[in-house]
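I need you to check the entry underneath: sequence plus C-alpha cells. Let me know what the C-alpha cell row says about the fold.

>
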Amino acid sequence: MLRGMVFIDHMNFDIALRKYYRGLDKPTIKLDYNKLFRNVCTRIDNVDFLKGFIFVPKPDDFLMKDKNLEQYYNWVAGMKNAPYTDVIEGRYVARQIDDLVPMDIERKSTYYKVEKGTDINLAVHAISKAFYNAYDIAFFLSADTDYVKVYEVLKSIGKITVVVGVKGQNINSIRPIVDNTLILDEGFFKTCEREISPKK
C-alpha cells in the first residue's frame, strides 16, 4: 500500500467549493474533512490514508471583528481537535488603503486583506515530510499554480503527486507537471458530508 498524505490550501479550496455550489444554485455543502481526506485517497488504488494537513490564515485582531472571519476561525480552531489532522496557521492581515482614512471593519473600502504564510507553510511541510520519507503519495487540494515548484521537487525525489480540483477549476497547466489529477463534483462531496447532530 502507498502511504498517502493530504495537503489542503483551505481558503483556495473553500472559495472554489462555494463557487461550484453557487453555479449549481444550491447551498454550499458542509464537509467532514476527515471523510474528505480519506475519500480523496480512495480515488487512487492501493493508497492508505495517514494524515491530513489544513493550511489556513489566522485573521489579525482587526479582521477578527468581521463576524464571518471570526466564525471561520472558530471552525479552524475546532479542527485542531480532529483526528489525523493538523492545522497549520499562516496570517490574514488588514492593510489601510488611505493613510488619511482609518480602517473601519464595517467599511470594506477602507482596507484590504493580505494572506501571508499559507503557500510557504504548505511547501515546507510537503517537502520536509517527503525528505523524511513520511509518505509515498501526496494529494494537494488546490488549483493554485504557485505550488508547481513544490510538485517538481517532490517528483524529483521520487514522490507521487496528485492535484485535486473542484469541478470548474482549470488545472490544465498543472497536469503535465504532476503524476495525476482528480476533479471532485457534487456526487463525491455528498460522500463527505458532515453529519448534523440532532437537536435535543
Observations:
- DSSP finds six helices and seven strands in the chain.
- The chain has a mean pLDDT of 94.
- Strands lie at 2-9, 47-59, 85-96, 111-116, 137-141, 160-166, 180-184.
